[in-house]
Amino acid sequence: QDNSFEQFIINYCNEKLQQIFIELTLKEEQEEYIREGIEWTHIEYFNNAIICDLIENNQTGILAMLDEECLRPGTVTDDTFLEKLNQVCATHQHFESRMSKCSRFLNDTSLPHSCFRIQHYAGKVMYQVEGFVDKNNDLLYRDLSQAMWKASHSLIKALFPEGNPAKINLKRPPTAGSQFKASVATLMKNLQTKNPNYIRCIKPNEKKAAQVFNEALVCHQIRYLGLLENVRVRRAGYAFRQAYEPCLERYKMLCKQTWPHWKGPARAGVEVLFNELRIPEEEFSFGRSKIFIRNPRTLFKLEDLRKQRLEDLATLIAKIYRGWKCRTRFLLMKRCQIVIASWYRRYA
Fold first, then answer.
1. What is the pLDDT of residue 30?
2. What is the SS3 assignment for 127?
3. Which pLDDT band, with edges at 50, 70 and 90, does 327 fall under?
4. Does residue 345 fall inside a structural domain?
5. First to last CA, the chain
6. CATH number for the domain harbouring residue 310
7. Which UniProt keywords apply (predicted)?
8. What is the domain range of residue 73?
């Protein structure tokens, strides 16, 4: 209920994670269709980059203005910080404050004068401005670091390397907000080099009790986790896509023309395969390098046909092997019979 600097930083991190989720799923999904030349219905979705910019912009962002207040000379208080926010962010559509000159919130009694409100991706959050400046400073005095570095205990000495007289830096230590911003930037850079999978956990009720399902709470989580946009994009597009070579390699046994070897281009082989299976044209599209399948049931059908065909092939292989084994034994017995018969005739 009472949100201060710590919750503001946590929500900033959540916004960045939501942004990378949007970029790596919704945005990338739509861009792939454009890359592959696939016709489809474009789905509009909310990109929370505007909220991230409100917080982390180097000139007009909330963190930048907080650092500016912490570093400037003169009397600095939480109220002067809020006043600065009201001047710079008053017209921003996701920033709300009673003290701003925006007439929308002058009579909003749910918003105290010492607070500001941000309309996050997950909903509106009100922050108490009290303590923002002190918590952002978070300065560890240099003389304290130097005293710890002089300790005889090796662990304590190792924890305060900045206290080493040979490494004294006269520059002002970075603020808590700037350190966290740099840490989040490193995390985002790391995630963008990976191929992440997402597990979305949904609480059925606030008490986390069994057999209790709060429909309103679940619907709220589904909305702010971005699941609705994801489902809409998936349903408007194609549920499955695969490069032509692996697709042909996996399903080539379903068509006599492609089995056991297809000598032409992989795309032509996939076209022959799908025509042979009589899959409706609206269920798939050919991209520049991939085959796109719209409905999961089409994929399930292909997998079922493949499973059945593999069983048939296994039966065929077993049948041929048993035939070969029996014929080999028969030929051996026949040769043996001829030898025995020839010896007997000569003896007779």
1. 73
2. strand
3. very high
4. no
5. 113
6. 3.30.70.1590
7. Actin-binding, ATP-binding, Calmodulin-binding, Motor protein, Myosin, Nucleotide-binding, Repeat
8. 1-138+174-237
